[in-house]
Design goal:
single chain, alpha/beta, Rossmann fold, Ribosomal Protein L9, domain 1, 2 domains
């Protein structure tokens, strides 16, 4: 497909949706090797999936590795349905999988084997819906446990990528996760490449620059953003710009009020200090005062393994909670958690382990 020239002799804007729709419609009819880079999947989940789907799966990673039993999973740009059918097996009969794609031929291919695959798995918990991934009107607010996507976000028009991340955040439940595999660039993609229809539909021209991909999650309100995988070797190099596959995980749930409950966390190390996405600083070995919301966030993945948690000796009832003072001394005095009148003295034997020596 060529880029048209307008009456002023200037290049017209690339019709991204049209070139993507046509390229992937062809990919639903015959295998398009240029639309994917190889990724390893757990072979036990592939046994029930027809060969035609496996051959026409176009991705760059395996976000299904982050699916958990019982999850409601949303696959953005579900294509031929491979990730959906893998996720179906992991979530089990109590879970649910929704695939969203705007390409009718791809949806037809995914639905072609829907009953057959469900019969093989032993349950039918997969649903395919037609729609754009940046406009998830078919998905209710806070209804999804995990969003996955495999090399599709880069295909969305640049001016609609912010909306895409807002929609992802909207449909996730509090505590929900995103696991996104996609192609990123090490340098900004110049305008000339962005106007190339083959490069755009081939997951190159619309790629996020690495740091901008992470920033998109931050600006949408996600936390705990982590690079789970980054291919050392580029998938492609175009005019000196390297394009490679990465997998990012992120969480939703830092919204809401901050209440004081006399809690503290102690960062284990090895870094001298670290900062979270809300600019809280945690110094190694220091009792850092946190609000209840932050305490709960840090008590769960992906932070839990990095901290010790100090709860107050006496819980503060909800009726006595006060707003957390974010400008306070960040170090929590031990007396705040133990109580000002705490004067307990233990016997020597009470701190020794039964059957062992004294501490």
């Amino acid at each position: 497909m060529k880029i048209s020239i307008n009456g002023n002799g200037k290049r017209a804007a690339l019709d991204v949706e049209t070139v993507v729709r046509k390229r992937y419609a062809r990919g639903a009819q015959r295998k398009e090797a240029g639309l994917c880079c190889a990724a390893a999947y757990d072979s036990k989940y592939l046994k029930v999936i027809p060969k035609e789907i496996l051959e026409k799966d176009y991705g760059c990673g395996d976000p299904s590795a982050f699916v958990q039993e019982g999850d409601v999973v949303l696959d953005l740009g579900s294509g031929a349905g491979k990730i959906c059918y893998i996720a179906s097996q992991i979530v089990g009969p109590k879970g649910k999988v929704i695939g969203i794609d705007f390409n009718p031929p791809m949806l037809a291919l995914a639905r072609k084997y829907q009953k057959n695959v469900g019969d093989r798995i032993g349950w039918h918990n997969v649903e395919f819906k037609e729609g754009k991934i940046q406009d998830l009107r078919a998905v209710e607010d806070e209804s999804v446990d995990l969003i996955v996507s495999n090399c599709v976000l880069n295909l969305v028009k640049t001016e609609e990528k912010t909306k895409l991340f807002r929609e992802m955040h909207r449909v996730l439940k509090r505590g929900g996760r995103a696991a996104i595999s996609d192609i990123t660039s090490d340098e900004p993609v110049p305008a000339g490449l962005q106007r190339d229809p083959e490069l755009w539909s081939g997951c190159i021209s619309g790629a996020f620059q690495e740091k901008e991909f992470l920033r998109a999650f931050e600006e949408a309100g996600f936390y705990g953003i982590q690079i789970e995988k980054r291919d050392e070797k580029p998938w492609r190099t175009v005019k000196g710009i390297e394009f490679r596959s990465v997998t990012i995980t992120a969480y939703k749930g830092k919204e809401g009020p901050c209440w004081e409950r006399n809690q503290a966390v102690i960062y284990k190390g090895p870094w001298k200090q670290v900062a979270d996405d809300d600019r809280h600083i945690f110094r190694r070995g220091v009792r850092t005062a946190v609000c209840d919301k932050t305490f709960q966030i840090l008590s769960n993945a992906p932070y839990r393994k990095d901290f010790f948690f100090v709860s107050p000796r006496k819980e503060i009832p909800p009726s006595q909670e006060k707003p957390f003072n974010c400008s306070r001394n960040p170090e929590r005095n031990p007396r705040e958690t133990k109580g000002l009148k705490y004067r307990k003295t233990t016997k020597k034997s009470s701190v020794c382990l039964e059957g062992g020596g004294c501490c």
